Amino acid sequence: GLAAAGMVPxxxxxxxxxxxxxxxxxxxxxxxxxxxVMCLDRGGLVGEDGVTHHGVFDMAAFGCVPTLAIAAPxxxxxxxxxxxxxxQYGHPFMIRYxxxxxxxxxxxxxxxxxxxxxxxRKLRDGADVALVTVGTVGNAAARAAEEGVSAAHxxxxxxxxxDEELLLEVGAKFRRVVTVEDGALRGGVGEAVAAFFNARGxxxxxxxxxxxxxxxxxxxxAQLYALCGYDEEGILKALLETKQAPVCAE
Length: 250
Hints:
Strand content: 15-25%
Number of strands: 10
Number of helices: 9
Shape: globular
Distance between the termini: 56 Å
Largest sheet: 5 strands, mixed
């Protein structure tokens, strides 16, 4: 109602609780293309709150909704920029971020920055494999990319829309890609990236790290990231294995 009357409301809800409002997001916001900014707290694995509070389905569930953009910041400064971007976007805008503290990048006093919606960034050059991440898991991936492998690191910033120009660059340079997301793999960003390459006839082997078709129970975030295979050690292991894996001949 506020959005229809010309305001830009910010709606802050746990990711797992937004599941209950799926129909509202589609019918009351997206179909009407209203400028509502949905801030999904506790996106990804939340730790000791357990299986009912993990926000693992948001990117997969909402990624199919037309007109809706889904942003996922790497740190608190980027979150600030995405909130500022959502204020000006004029369409449904979702931001998902995890429980807990950020990576410590200073944001107080920084100037507000409007980010181009659906555009990612290259964080690191490499030659062996491309590492494509979305959200705060990119921080662990960045550390993993510094050890034992020449990995180019790309931060998508947006789960939807995907940065097609960036992915075309990846597909032109690399035949081995590792994607990492703090969310469900089925219907997630990794699948969308693989589908993008396939639709364009690009010969790219994609290995996706995230949460499989299973329930994740209680544990510290660090324990659960390791359990699911996308902590720093798990990402490095995947990069090394992918680097050494054979690729199909032309």
